[in-house]
Amino acid sequence: MALQWVILAYAVAAETAIVLLLTLPSPKLLKSRLVSLTSLLLQPAVGIVPFAALQILDIYWKKEHRLICTSEVCTAAERDRYEKSIYKAQRNIILCAAACLLYWWVCCICKYYKAIHTLEEVEKRYKNQ
């Protein structure tokens, strides 16, 4: 596994952990601090999206320029290597899609909790009047 896929895998693992932490029930104070910390981390983490997009483009380019081994001239080892490269490309596409999807989920969850927090503040103001 090349370095870019290791980096992307760690990013997906971190995003998955953040999504789990944000969606699990927890005390309000802990949840608000976790949302504010995650919101601060979202802006630098946006680099994951273009990075994943470039990796998808790289996979597409390699797919278009890959030697196709369908004739009877190919050996069994060549056919196995071809199939293995196809499986790796599919796995990497799923990894890129997961990185983008999880980043979007984290953004939506943080936006949702911020909206809830502002609505709770407005409700408190109306109750105090």
Number of strands: 0
Helical content band = over 70%
Structurally, the number of domains stands at 1
Envelope shape = rod-shaped
What would you call the structural class? mainly alpha
The percentage of residues in β strands lies in: under 5%
The Cα radius of gyration reads: 22 Å
**End-to-end span in angstroms?**
61 Å
- Calculate the mean pLDDT score and round it: 88
Outline the biggest β-sheet: none
Can you offer a commentary on this structure?
- This protein is an all-alpha fold and 129 residues long.
- It has one domain.
- The chain is built from four helices and no strands.
- Helix 1 packs parallel to helix 4, helix 2 crosses helix 4 and helix 3 packs antiparallel against helix 4.
- The longest helix is centred in the C-terminal third of the chain and has 53 residues.
- It starts with a helix and ends with a helix.
- The relative contact order is 0.15.
- This is Endoplasmic reticulum transmembrane protein.
What would a concise description of this structure say?
One of its GO terms (cellular component) is endoplasmic reticulum membrane. The protein is mainly α and 129 residues long. It has one domain (1-11, 34-63, 76-128).
Task: Indicate the topology.
Elements: H1 3-23, H2 28-45, H3 48-64, H4 76-128
Helix pairs in contact: 1-4, 2-4, 3-4
Protein name: Endoplasmic reticulum transmembrane protein
Keywords: Endoplasmic reticulum, ER-Golgi transport, Membrane, Protein transport, Transmembrane, Transmembrane helix, Transport
GO biological process, one term: endoplasmic reticulum to Golgi vesicle-mediated transport
